[in-house]
Amino acid sequence: MPGISPLLSFIIYFVILDFVDYCYHRGSHHVGWWWGLHSLHHSQQNMNLWSDDRNHLLDDFLRDVVMALVALGIGVPPGQYVLLVSISRILQSLQHANVRIHFGYIGERLLISPRFHRTHHAIGVGHESKGKGSIGGCNFGVVLPIWDMLLGTANFSAGYARTGVRDQLARIDSHGVGRPGRNYGRGFWQQQWLGLRAWWNLQD
C-alpha cells in the first residue's frame, strides 16, 4: 500500500502469514492422510527446544510451498520474508521447550507460551477431538493465540499434561491381548519411512 512504513508492512505481513499458518496447521489435524505425516511431530514424548524440528520432510515441504506462495501473492519482500520466518521459528522453538512457563492471563492471549502449546501436544487433549482419539484438537496457533480465540479452538488449561500420541501407548485389544504402541521410529530415516507408511495407511 502506498505510503505505508516498512515496520507497519512487516507487522501486517506477519499477522497474515500467521493466520495462514494457523489454517495450515489446523488442516493437518483434521485430514487423515495429512495427520499421518504431521503425527510424527507429535510423537515426541519428551518436549524440548528442538521438538519443533522433528517433522516429516514432506509435511515441511508442503507447508513451505504454501507459505512461500502466499508471501509472494501479498508482495512480501524477500528480505522481510527471511526475517519473518526467522522470528517465527525462534518463537516456535521456545514454545516447545521443556519448561513450565506461561505469560500470565494477558500475555497468554497475546503470544503463545510453552504451556499453551504443550496443551496442544497433550495426549487426549491437544490433538484429539474431545479426547476420544479422533483427529482434531485445540491450540493450533503458531505464534499468535488470537486465531484460536476467535475460531473457538483455544484451551488455556493451567496443567502440564503428558505429551505424545495416543496410539504410542500400549493397549489391550478386543480379545484381551496386550498390544504395543505404534512405533514412530528412532532415527531420522526410520521416522521418515514410517511417516510415509502412516500417510498411505490413513488414505485407505
Q: Can you offer a commentary on this structure?
A:
This protein is mostly helical and 204 residues long. The chain has 8 helices and 2 strands. The protein has a two-stranded antiparallel sheet. The chain starts with 5 loop residues before the first helix and ends with a helix. The model has no long low-confidence stretch (mean pLDDT 88).
- β-strand percent reads under 5%
Which descriptor suits the 3D outline? Answer: globular
The number of helical elements comes to 8
* Structural class computed from helices and strand pairing: mainly alpha
Descriptive tags:
single chain; 204 residues; mainly alpha; two-stranded antiparallel ribbon; globular
Outline of the structure:
The chain is an all-alpha fold and 204 residues long.
Write the layout of secondary structure elements.
Elements: H1 6-28, H2 32-42, H3 57-74, H4 78-95, H5 104-107, H6 114-121, H7 146-151, E1 171-172, E2 178-179, H8 188-201
Antiparallel strand pairs: 1-2
Helix pairs in contact: 1-3, 2-8
